[in-house]
Amino acid sequence: MLGLMQNWQLNVSKVIQYAQQNYGSQQIISQNYDDHITQLSYKEVEKRMRCLAWSLRNVLGLERGDVVATMAWNNIRHFEIWYAVMGSDMVCHTVNPRLFKDQIRYIINHAQDKYIFIERSFIPILKTLAHELATLKGIIVLTKDLDPTESDGFTIPFFCYEDLIGEQSIDEWPEIDENNACALCYTSGTTGNPKGVCFSQRALVLHAMAVNGGNFYGLTHNDTVLPVVPMFHANAWSNIFSAPMCGAKLVLPDRHLDPQSLYTLINSYQVTFSAGVPTVWLALLDYLNTHNGQLKTMTRIVIGGSACAASTIEAYEKQYNIKILHAWGMTEMSPIGTVSTIKPELQNKPYQEQLQFKAKQGIPIFTVEMKITDENGINITDDSTHSGHLMVRGPAIVATYFKQDTPVIDDDNYFKTGDIAIIDEAGYMQIRDRTKDLIKSGGEWISSIELENTALFHPGVAEAAAIAADHPKWGERPILLVVAEKECILDDKDILTTLKDHIVKWQLPDAIIVVDELPHTATGKLQKTVLREKYQMYLIDNNLI
User: Fold this and answer.
1) What is the pLDDT of residues 389-401, one digit of tens each?
2) 332 is catalytic
3) Which of these is catalytic: 403, 440, 500, 534?
4) Among 187, 272, 312, 523, which one carries the catalytic annotation?
């Protein structure tokens, strides 16, 4: 017997409709590239979105299912493009401008983008690829006035963004099959070409509802949200959907992600909630400490993208009374999978004991199921003493990569994340390592992440990377590369003393190397392949075996 409810499609456009209908006067404040501040209400912005949606069809000639690219910062025009494109039953492909040019060329051609909306500052990137982008029909510059010289070297037409926001608009958003594609992101893998993750309307709406649960983001119409994580990276962790879904005010920082700019935006507009990677919050923490600053309205920060040190969590919570939500996920998961919040049974424990759980990746949001398997695929989830392969499934998790016929899920619909993890007795998941980053010494596995996180206990260590180096007896042995905090001089013996308090003797690194910086991918992940190539023979070459 079927239920007797209405068949109401979960469309992205319904999110912005809800915001303008119920919170029409709520503001979206946007920093722009020219440092000008724009303030528009949800009602005003939704009207501009419908004007842009009209122009997509009637000026640019786009049709349902067409893929439209963006290369832009977090600003109000990019916000408008997301909803206009997705609400028109087209696919919004966010291009990360920090990728290598070969990767940008590959993903634009692979996605078969018809048009690209681009910041003026990124045009030089595209110009170097102008004759290699086979499917592009035109370029829309996010500006109110075109510079005629900008199109030099291109054979396709340029359009001015504000010219597309005319008087004509669609009367209402079309009803769309919720399973239709609406967004496309490419993973920034450290090897091989990026892989496309194609999101459905249903997946993004469900995911936004799930992350906004009271135990996780918990946004309300009383919040002011500052999305630090770029809109060109993993759906901006759903901030662009979850904020209007509850009528929250939005503050969009454009490219201004330095500590002073963030400090000014947070305090000027009474920001209560933000989200971004650890390096951003470490830099802001240093700024606060150096300038005796305060973030009086901020109540919580989501930190993800890579593991956040317990010391960073403690500093924000103890010194600035800001709750840290330690999150984990992947582009393939839309992207949030878990958030570390303290369950009721742990709330009476001492803070330092709670901190151990806060530093883990946490518990899954609703719509995400997890299991841990051994090398043979046997489920060992209930064994809290052994780590294994982390598998996930849910309605906002990838089943197949874009333009690949082979599913990437097992017979039970679980996706293999590539992470080695453990789930403790309290139900908290903790990433132990990436499968490819484990160090196998004498037949035993050593976690590079555990070494890195422990090294961060040392007050002078800003960043750490543990990798495997060749060893004639043990096969591989760990070495640790560290970057010093500003104005700190590191001593490898002091770091080793810190490690000895937490790491068993046979897992300690055979060498500790202080470097000026570590290589990162376009999304801030450590490029361990580069480090392995450079330091693979370090122990042998330096006679440290």
Assistant:
1) 999 999 999 999 9
2) yes
3) 440
4) 187
